Amino acid sequence: MPDHATALNAQNLAEVGSRVPVPGYDRSAVTAGVVHFGVGGFHRAHQAMYLDRLLSKDVEAAKDYGICGVGVLPGDARMRDTMASQDCLYTLVLKHPDGSLEPRIVGSIVEYLFAPDDPEAVVEKLAAPTTRIVSLTVTEGGYNLDDITGEFVTDTPAVAADAAAGSDAGKLTTVFGLVVEALVRRRERGLEPFTVMSCDNLQGNGHLARTAFAAFADLREEALGEWVREHVHFPNSMVDRITPATTGDDVALVEREFGIVDAWPVVCEPFTQWALEDSFGAGRPPLEEVGVQVVPDVEPYELMKLRLLNASHQALAYFGRLLDHELVDGAATDPDLKPFVRAYMDAEATPTLAPVPGVDLDEYKDTLEERFGNPHVRDTTARLAAESSDRIPKWLVPVVRANLAAGRDVHRSAAVVASWARYAEGVDEHGESITVVDRRRDRVMAAAQRQLGDDPLAFLRDRELFGDLVDDARFTDAYLDALRGLHDDGARATLRRLR
Ligand SMILES: NC(=O)c1ccc[n+]([C@@H]2O[C@H](COP(=O)([O-])OP(=O)(O)OC[C@H]3O[C@@H](n4cnc5c(N)ncnc54)[C@H](O)[C@@H]3O)[C@@H](O)[C@H]2O)c1
Ligand SMILES: O=P(O)(O)OC[C@@H](O)[C@@H](O)[C@H](O)[C@H](O)CO
Fold first, then answer.
1. Rounded-to-integer distance, Cα 310 and Cα 305, Å
2. Which positions of the chain have pLDDT values less than 70?
């Protein structure tokens, strides 16, 4: 334990470097070839870490792929301030299952722009000849796509305002407005378009990004959407590293253990994976040199991860909270929830998956159980339960549909949906209130209240979220059975009966 703490910034890097590994490369020689929207925990634990690894290998091409982070939402002002005071440096701490900590200072983010301060500067950064890739972790909801039709929602106020603002960059507030205006400027200047690389947990994230940006371009100008579809590359990717939100305890841990004063470190699990389609229009860094799987078709990897990891996370979230588990490792090792989740993976998720090149699915699931159970990561069931209305329809409903179509069992998936509906009633089994965090909170909670009255299927009648599942008796029978169990016998007894 160091005898004094040092503020993290470029000037103090040598001192910090006597305690933890720091970038050995010359950050001043790094150009931001990547502009990233959504600099949160995950981006800093994953993509920025891979680029930091590449820069550390002294690969000549790497120095063209530093990152310029961009914040779009007003809440990103805190990241702006942290980045400014720390010269964009931050501490990444891997938490191993045995309790050991693996720290590193990451240096691949070399600039940060806050769009509300100066949208024109963001557009010019995007339009600069040095920018080759625009990457995104703007969350599942950030693509502004209708859950049922999959189409871009054109009447969202901020989107409509950006479409009306056109090339008046000073008025732009959304990622769509900023990125499309930059593409227009590049076209006018004879520069090739950058690649738009989504790193969000969405099946076909590249396809969905293309749908969203091209539809926005169409709003701006006739035929612009067609140009985007034709000329801009949108690789699909599967990204994986469990990264909880940073807490005050993490800030204190970094100061206590490593003597570093870092206002916003990132802590995460040691596991990391990135499968990426090789579809880049303006060049890409040699990511395969640092462990990224560059593959012709990412879909098998995506489905494996979304249906086994993310959908299981949903089971851990609601059942976990109903069983009083605040932390995910407690939920994942609970004697009744653990076998239920494994049975969901084996009997319902796995039959919907195609073989994944080079992956033994049984081993993958064993590893997932270990990862979920890592007691040091301290991920919360509350994080996993947030924004459920963006997650269940995208991760679990497709599993249900595939199994119904094939005549297979859906009772565990139905129970997970029922656990969400029970959770959304907003009161737990001890009468304590549950805080539901969801952009569709009012609607979801109102439906959950109605299911307590004379319409037990009220929750499922939201066709935007569940489509026509409410019309399928095989699903509704299983759902009602689980919901009755949750109401009459409680979560534990229901899990024991249904696993
Ligand atoms: N945390 C993880 O374990 C993890 C793992 C794999 C993938 N992901 C993906 O990364 C996303 C972000 O996760 P995180 O843990 O970094 O969250 P976070 O809350 O730390 O960061 C999210 C960032 O996205 C920005 N953002 C949100 N909505 C936006 C919008 N509409 N437009 C522009 N920016 C927007 C926020 O301002 C913030 O900077 C997830 O939604 C998921 O798709 C996360
Ligand atoms: O971040 P989200 O909203 O996509 O989903 C919540 C978690 O399931 C997710 O963050 C996982 O931890 C992550 O996908 C692991 O790679």
1. 7
2. 1
Ligand 1 pocket, residue 200 CB under 6 Å: yes
Which pLDDT belongs to residue 499? 87
Q: Which spans in 221-247 are helix H?
A: 224-231
Place of tokens 């490593």: 258
Helices vs strands, H then E, count in the chain: 23, 13
The answer to whether residues 149 and 50 touch, using CB atoms and an 8 Å cutoff, is no
Mutate to test the pocket of ligand 2, among 44, 208, 310 (most ligand atoms within 8 A of CB): 310
CA–CA gap between residue 243 and residue 43 (Å, rounded) = 9
pLDDT of residue 99: 97
* Total Cβ atoms within 10 A of residue 40: 19
Cα 479 to its chain centre, rounded Å, is 28
Write the single-letter amino acid at 326.
Answer: E
Can you tell me the distance from the alpha carbon of 311 to that of 125, in angstroms, rounded to the nearest whole number? Answer: 37
Nearest CA to ligand 1 atom 26: 138
Instruction: Tell me the domains of the chain and their CATH numbers.
Output: 6-295 (3.40.50.720), 299-498 (1.10.1040.10)
Which parts of 205-247 fold into alpha helices (H)?
A: 205-220, 224-231
Contact (Cβ atoms closer than 8 angstroms) between residue 446 and residue 344: no
E-state strands within 10-166: 32-37, 66-71, 90-95, 101-106, 109-114, 133-136
Q: How far is the CA of 416 from the centre of ligand 1 (A)?
A: 24
Q: Which of 163, 155, 179 is nearest to 70 (CA)?
A: 179
Q: How far apart (Å, rounded) are the C-alpha atoms in residues 478 and 412?
A: 8
Closest CA relative to residue 102, chosen from 267, 252, 255, 248: 267
- Dihedral (Cα; 140, 143, 148, 151), 10-degree rounding: -160
> How far, CA to CA in Å, does 263 sit from each of 2, 256, 348, 397, 462?
18, 13, 43, 39, 42
Global pTM value: 0.97
Q: Which pLDDT does position 148 carry in this prediction?
A: 80
Alpha-carbon gap, residue 385 to 489, rounded angstroms: 22
Cα separation, 160 vs 211, in Å, equals: 16
| CB-ligand 2 contact for 377 (6 Å cutoff) | no
Name the residue with tokens 């985007």: 228
Q: What is the C-alpha separation between 232 and 281, in angstroms, rounded?
A: 7
